[in-house]
């Protein structure tokens, strides 16, 4: 139990004190004693627990266990179990004795009033605020951990209101209370006690901009709920009504963890004695919360919704592509959401614009879209169309500068759950592209990197992507789910695998088969010509070295072995210092920066062909850009190779023509789609970062 202030006894007059239920009160029995006193004896009302605290190595227990020596090694503490019904209804008497223990030399009287004061939250993480006798001031990670959790109230439950719910100091919807964490103040005691004492809720100044507290007075009217703590209110004198024993509060998070905020906040209540100035807090109870982090979901999580844009180009609309996406989501049993042209302004690169994640507390979870700093044609879409009831929104603004290509969220991915050298990452690890191992070069903006790092639960790994024209990690890697014990595979672009495949086909007598067969606008090049192109071979081998550097980082940081990696055939060529894919990327290569029209094209320099690895993963169904590889025995040899690598893993490869609407503008299927996925079943607070 916590220690309370000392109560000093007097021989001349009774002493009056308040005793908080469950909290020990120290009683000073030595400051005012009769002359010649050697021992003391204590008696009290049935509702008072009396404790004699002593050092057994220095004090001999009295034979009658009654008369204790007035020694500095002997102390008296008291506690009560229940609140009093009236003032001073509990009594403690301390009698003092000299050499003779038959007659007392004097006595002191202490009148106690029991009061039950406790601030309680969902410390046990069960979804409800319950009385806790444990440590409420600290927060612990892990399956045996404890401490309450706050959701950042970043959705908009009332569509008639403006902004996020957290921006409103007044409640706009009763549904908003469900996004908040419960907190209960127990304040049981005689009503007359509160004529001379008050209860004050406090939030530290440093936490006041991080948390908001609403006081609930019942009823179904918004007027019954008012914000009492927050950015404009550091303290609140509780308005206790006569006979009131419990007061309910609702607590909301206002900011996500970040470089200047660990995620921890605290609230406290103090019982303040107003009897004599200055006012003195005689008891304080403190509770701790941690802000729920924003969590990304990897490709291995089941898909819920696929987002894609409707656009119009010189050749017409992407209606055929939308139909192919509709067929794909039907197979995967998820929902298709089409962003109309009027809302995307012909900006089709929806993967670059946003990333879906979620937040979770024991009482509730909801999705949160992370809006990238990219800000092109789609810049208002996530705020205007996705933000809503139980769908949150967060963004990070880059100060003093605009966004670079690496700030687009094609440069943001997350691995499935992994274990690395005994260290578990049950929610996977975030992957971002950077200029490593070079000095200088391009990096994702610091404010975005800091935000991702501060969430703590998906420790980011920086990869080397600055060798690419666009510089996004999904240009050379992706993850797919598998039905075996591992549960996933990492797919890596591989120029070496492609050159090997073409060499095999040449040796089989198919050297005259041509790349881009079936594309009228492309110059056809045979396998023989591709293999004889020293420049293309040299460029691709350079790229292989860059990918191999990342391969080693990924193996080390994700605990992978070669068995966990699948090499997907892909050629690259260099334009200046950067590389681009030679043909449709079957998983994730996009070159998107500043093309013909900012909202339409994805890069300054065009690539020679599609990028085959830029696939969309919907469960076991993979929507893969059609690579238009050499036709051998009536089949595309690149498609056949990819099928042979992935279909034995239980995956279904669906090759989709995205050439006109996406590839010619230097993007692919993954660039032009975005998937919201099912949250993890694992509870983030059970892990230890």
From TrEMBL:
<dbReference type="InterPro" id="IPR013733">
    <property type="entry name" value="Prot_Arg_deaminase_cen_dom"/>
</dbReference>
<feature type="active site">
    <location>
        <position position="472"/>
    </location>
</feature>
<dbReference type="Pfam" id="PF08526">
    <property type="entry name" value="PAD_N"/>
</dbReference>
<feature type="active site">
    <location>
        <position position="671"/>
    </location>
</feature>
<feature type="active site">
    <location>
        <position position="474"/>
    </location>
</feature>
<comment type="similarity">
    <text>Belongs to the protein arginine deiminase family.</text>
</comment>
<dbReference type="Pfam" id="PF03068">
    <property type="entry name" value="PAD"/>
</dbReference>
<keyword id="KW-0106">Calcium</keyword>
<protein>
    <recommendedName>
        <fullName>Protein-arginine deiminase</fullName>
        <ecNumber>3.5.3.15</ecNumber>
    </recommendedName>
</protein>
<feature type="domain" description="Protein-arginine deiminase (PAD) central">
    <location>
        <begin position="115"/>
        <end position="273"/>
    </location>
</feature>
<dbReference type="GO" id="GO:0005737">
    <property type="term" value="C:cytoplasm"/>
</dbReference>
<dbReference type="InterPro" id="IPR036556">
    <property type="entry name" value="PAD_central_sf"/>
</dbReference>
<dbReference type="InterPro" id="IPR038685">
    <property type="entry name" value="PAD_N_sf"/>
</dbReference>
<comment type="function">
    <text>Catalyzes the deimination of arginine residues of proteins.</text>
</comment>
<feature type="domain" description="Protein-arginine deiminase (PAD) N-terminal">
    <location>
        <begin position="1"/>
        <end position="113"/>
    </location>
</feature>
<dbReference type="InterPro" id="IPR013530">
    <property type="entry name" value="PAD_C"/>
</dbReference>
<feature type="active site">
    <location>
        <position position="352"/>
    </location>
</feature>
<feature type="domain" description="Protein-arginine deiminase C-terminal">
    <location>
        <begin position="282"/>
        <end position="686"/>
    </location>
</feature>
<keyword id="KW-0378">Hydrolase</keyword>
<keyword id="KW-0963">Cytoplasm</keyword>
<dbReference type="InterPro" id="IPR013732">
    <property type="entry name" value="PAD_N"/>
</dbReference>
<dbReference type="Pfam" id="PF08527">
    <property type="entry name" value="PAD_M"/>
</dbReference>
<dbReference type="InterPro" id="IPR008972">
    <property type="entry name" value="Cupredoxin"/>
</dbReference>
<dbReference type="GO" id="GO:0005634">
    <property type="term" value="C:nucleus"/>
</dbReference>
<dbReference type="InterPro" id="IPR004303">
    <property type="entry name" value="PAD"/>
</dbReference>
<dbReference type="GO" id="GO:0004668">
    <property type="term" value="F:protein-arginine deiminase activity"/>
</dbReference>
<dbReference type="GO" id="GO:0005509">
    <property type="term" value="F:calcium ion binding"/>
</dbReference>
């Amino acid at each position: 139990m916590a220690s309370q202030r000392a109560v000093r006894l007097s021989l001349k007059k009774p002493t009056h004190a308040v005793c908080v239920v469950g909290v020990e009160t120290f009683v000073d029995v030595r400051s005012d004693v009769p002359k010649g006193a050697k021992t003391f004896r204590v008696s009290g009302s049935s509702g008072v627990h009396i404790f004699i605290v002593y050092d057994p190595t220095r004090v001999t227990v009295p034979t009658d266990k009654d008369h204790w020596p007035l020694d500095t090694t002997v102390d008296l503490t008291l506690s009560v179990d229940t609140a009093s019904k009236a003032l001073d209804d509990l009594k403690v008497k301390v009698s003092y004795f000299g050499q003779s223990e038959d007659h007392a030399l004097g006595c002191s009287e202490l009148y106690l009033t029991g009061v039950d004061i406790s601030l309680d939250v969902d410390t046990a993480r069960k979804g409800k605020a319950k009385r806790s006798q444990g440590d409420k001031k600290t927060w612990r990670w892990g399956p045996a951990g404890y401490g309450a959790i706050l959701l950042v109230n970043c959705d908009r439950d009332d569509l008639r209101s403006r902004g996020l719910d957290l921006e409103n100091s007044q409640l706009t919807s009763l549904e908003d209370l469900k996004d908040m964490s419960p907190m209960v103040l127990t304040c049981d005691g005689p009503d007359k006690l509160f004529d001379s004492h008050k209860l004050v809720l406090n939030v530290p100044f440093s936490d006041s901009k991080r948390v908001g507290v609403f006081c609930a007075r019942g009823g179904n009217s918004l007027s019954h709920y008012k914000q009492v703590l927050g950015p404009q209110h550091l303290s609140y004198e509780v308005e206790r009504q006569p006979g009131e024993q419990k007061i309910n509060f609702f607590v909301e998070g206002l900011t996500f963890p970040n470089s200047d905020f660990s995620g921890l906040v605290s609230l406290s209540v103090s019982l303040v004695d107003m009897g004599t100035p200055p006012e003195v807090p005689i008891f304080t109870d403190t509770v701790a919360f941690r802000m729920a982090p924003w969590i990304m979901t990897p490709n291995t999580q089941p898909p819920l919704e696929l987002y894609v844009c409707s656009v119009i180009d010189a050749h017409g609309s992407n209606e055929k592509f939308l139909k192919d996406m509709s067929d794909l989501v039907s197979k995967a049993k998820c929902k298709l959401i089409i962003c109309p042209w009027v809302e995307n302004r012909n900006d089709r690169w929806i993967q670059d614009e946003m990333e879906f994640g979620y937040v979770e507390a024991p009482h509730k979870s909801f999705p949160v879209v992370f809006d990238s700093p990219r800000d092109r044609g789609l810049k208002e879409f996530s705020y205007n169309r996705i933000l809503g009831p139980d769908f949150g929104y967060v963004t990070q603004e880059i100060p003093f500068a605009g966004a670079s290509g690496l700030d687009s969220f094609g440069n943001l991915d997350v691995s499935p759950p992994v274990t690395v050298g005994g260290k578990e990452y049950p929610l996977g690890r975030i992957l971002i592209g950077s200029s490593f191992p070079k000095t200088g070069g391009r990096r994702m903006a610091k404010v975005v990197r800091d935000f991702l790092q501060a969430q703590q639960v998906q420790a980011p790994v920086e990869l080397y992507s600055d060798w690419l024209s666009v510089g996004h990690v999904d240009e050379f890697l992706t993850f797919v789910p598998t039905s075996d014990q591992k549960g996933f595979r990492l797919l890596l672009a591989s120029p070496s695998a492609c050159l090997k495949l073409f060499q095999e086909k040449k040796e089989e007598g198919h050297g005259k088969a041509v790349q881009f067969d079936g594309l009228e606008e492309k110059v056809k090049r045979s396998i023989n010509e591709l293999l004889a192109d020293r420049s293309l071979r040299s460029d691709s081998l350079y790229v292989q070295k860059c990918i191999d550097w990342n391969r080693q980082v990924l193996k080390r940081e994700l605990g992978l072995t070669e068995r966990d990696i699948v090499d997907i055939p892909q050629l690259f060529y260099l334009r200046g210092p950067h590389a681009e894919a030679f043909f449709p990327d079957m998983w994730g290569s996009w070159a998107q920066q500043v093309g013909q029209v900012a909202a339409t094209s994805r890069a300054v320099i065009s690539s020679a062909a599609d990028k085959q690895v830029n696939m969309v993963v919907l469960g076991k169904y993979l929507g893969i850009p059609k690579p238009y590889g050499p036709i051998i025995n009536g089949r595309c040899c690149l498609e056949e190779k990819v099928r042979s690598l992935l279909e034995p893993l239980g995956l279904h490869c669906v090759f989709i023509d995205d050439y006109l609407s996406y590839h010619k503008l230097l993007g692919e299927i993954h660039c032009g789609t975005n998937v919201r996925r099912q949250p993890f079943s694992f509870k983030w607070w059970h892990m230890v970062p």
